[in-house]
């Protein structure tokens, strides 16, 4: 079996074990396949590679947002606050993630590219309608060296998906005024504004239902590209989190 055939076999095996174990990259069989694949990475200097430029990458491993809950059907649930720096209300609203995508596009500034994280979700909170929406954490990235990307987040948006009832959406996601927030929430808002130059949501676009925030001093991180080819990308974040995406 030549290298191309070996890579194809291991990639298929990785996808199968990810499906079997609900995307859990910590499962020993998944880890084994990832390690095998990364040793055969066909792309040198992956952060400079045009292979990074894609209309869209789709996450096929488990989501990596903090404090998630795995449900009985293998999907993952989070609160709205955990998906976007606690910027959107109600922060405690329970959601199930339907998909996580990452569009990668050159920005016309050297090798700087978009690093948006687009999360499609469905509300699963009791006594709430099962509306679908999208949280987009907007970011940019550029090579720090041949294997690591410097990542910066610059803001985010919350929008309903098409065909959702806009009036119901407005009732759920209208942002409270600062005076309606608790002391702890107000204190955290002041801290984030000071640290990251965070500009919190200023209201909803009543025609589209979109809510947005901006960061003037972005939190920064590194992302190591462990494997990259025409179909698959494997990365490791600052805290060791492994993400597997396919084109």
Number of helices: 5
Strand segment tally: 13
Helix content: 10-25%
Large-scale geometry: globular
Q: Look at the structure and give the mean pLDDT.
A: 89
Structural class: alpha+beta
Biggest sheet strand order reads 1-4-6-7-8-11-12-13
Number of domains: 2
- The SSE string, one letter per element, is HHEEEHEEEEEHHEEEEE
Query: Main beta sheet, described?
Result: 8 strands, antiparallel, barrel
Low-confidence stretches: 177-181
How much β-strand is present in the residues?
25-35%
Report how far apart the termini are: 25 Å
Q: What integer value in Å does the Rg equal? A: 19 Å
Question: Can you give a write-up of this model?
Answer:
- With 247 residues, the chain is α+β, with helices and mostly antiparallel strands.
- It has two domains: 40 residues; 199 residues, no CATH class.
- Helix content is 23%, strand content 34%.
- The chain is built from five helices and 13 strands.
- Strands 1-4-6-7-8-11-12-13 form an eight-stranded antiparallel beta barrel.
- α1 packs antiparallel against α2.
- About 2% of the residues have low confidence.
Annotation keywords:
247 residues, alpha+beta, 2 domains, eight-stranded antiparallel barrel, 13 strands, globular
Structure at a glance:
23% of the residues lie in helices and 34% in strands.
Produce the secondary structure layout:
Blueprint: H1 3-20, H2 28-39, E1 54-59, E2 69-70, E3 76-79, H3 80-83, E4 94-104, E5 113-114, E6 117-123, E7 132-143, E8 148-160, H4 166-173, H5 183-196, E9 198-199, E10 211-215, E11 220-228, E12 232-237, E13 242-246
Helix pairs in contact: 1-2
